[in-house]
Amino acid sequence: xxxxxxxxxxxxxxxxxxxxxxLPAVTPAAVFHPPGGRAAxxxxxxxxxxxxxxxxxxxxxGVAGLDAAARFGIGASALSTFSIxxxxxxxxxxxxxxxxxxxxxxxxxLLLGVALMSAGQLAFAFSTAFAPAxxxxxxxxxxxxxxxxxxxxVAARWFPAARNPFVAQLTGxxxxxxxxxxxxxxxxxxxxxxxxxxxxxxxxxxxAVFAAVFVLLREAPPGAPAPVHREFPRLPVGRQIRAAxxxxxxxxxMWVHFTTAFPASAxxxxxxxxxxVEGQGMTRAGAGGLLSLLVLSGMxxxxxFGRLVSRSAGSRLPIAFTVLGVTALCWTVTLAWPxxxxxxxxxxxxMLVMGSNGPASxxxxxxxxxxxxxxxxxxxxxxxxxxxxxxxxxxxxxxGVLLDALADPGSGSYSAHAYQLAFCFQLAPLLLxxxxxxxxxxxxxxxx
Length: 448
Prior knowledge:
Blueprint: H1 5-8, H2 37-59, H3 65-72, H4 76-104, H5 106-125, H6 130-144, H7 148-158, H8 164-192, H9 195-216, H10 228-231, H11 237-246, H12 248-279, H13 284-311, H14 316-336, H15 344-354, H16 357-370, H17 377-406, H18 416-422, H19 427-447
Helix pairs in contact: 2-5, 2-6, 2-7, 2-8, 2-9, 4-5, 4-6, 4-17, 5-6, 5-7, 5-9, 7-8, 8-13, 8-16, 11-17, 12-13, 12-14, 12-16, 12-17, 12-19, 13-15, 13-16, 14-15, 14-16, 16-17, 17-18
């Protein structure tokens, strides 16, 4: 089998061998090695600018939840629908986006993603009713879905395979900076410039990013072989999806992503600010500070996990299980605290621990990359990347429904006790995901 890292994208552990019919012919281009270096970092930087913008769009409602409830006159269940629909569209688009990346290349997919995000956010900025605002978040989620997988594919073409786990973590780390923009800048702008100006400005920022990708981004370095979507014959869509899904490493990656990503994702996307302000009686500034701590913690963990996984593939599941165990423990202690009011130091610890969730979820994408050949990497990555967003969608809905069920009749807000009980819901998907990881770990070991 060819040892070209650009074509087979090996990870730190050997992927399952391809059947003879799937092996590409060995050509002079097959021994091409991605160079890395300054040009690679420049291409990655252009691509990752789209992902930073996507994270700003994605998390913008996280600091505007209370404002949105007042603007559209809705309760917790309807408010959670915004994020649920956005996440549902994102998750549902992962496999189609993976197929698009495999077929037309990441540059075109990134351009389409920026256009859709900007259009959706601009419509959201001027919406005054629930239905059009909901539709605009769906468009935004569709564009958001096109960013992360595309950036990883650009990186895989430019960097040596051994660097891919680190570059993936760095992509997540830099993207987290978009969350920091949301919690620090956007939260303040909402109360100074207003709803339409704030969200309109985010939408217009997409024009500059679109121009940078269109003019400056190159998918691959000079001398690279033809992109996968031109080099290999196209499999039928159904066959390509089945091939990616049938690989146990893909499914293990999806469940790792599902279980590690959703606690921090659901908290940051919507319920974090209401929990801290209404449930814990904090000021918006204090809640914003804790959410910023969550973001900064994620950046630090991204660097740590990237180094560890790059050095040893065997560290992947131990990292994931450690993150799951500590996250479950911190939430259990927080939710069990008398009267639903944990001390500030415990909330700080919780934010620091949840900062590890996003970086740990990228381990799932590394599994998908390690156990699939290059011609279906986009499809497999899309399947794995669905996991955390499905988990987030389930959690967002579960918390919203429970909050409405526990609310005092006629009250426009929710008590600390209601938040305490509603947030217990997230322990169920944590247990489910952990059980599936254990099951697929044994299945993957048996298949090797």
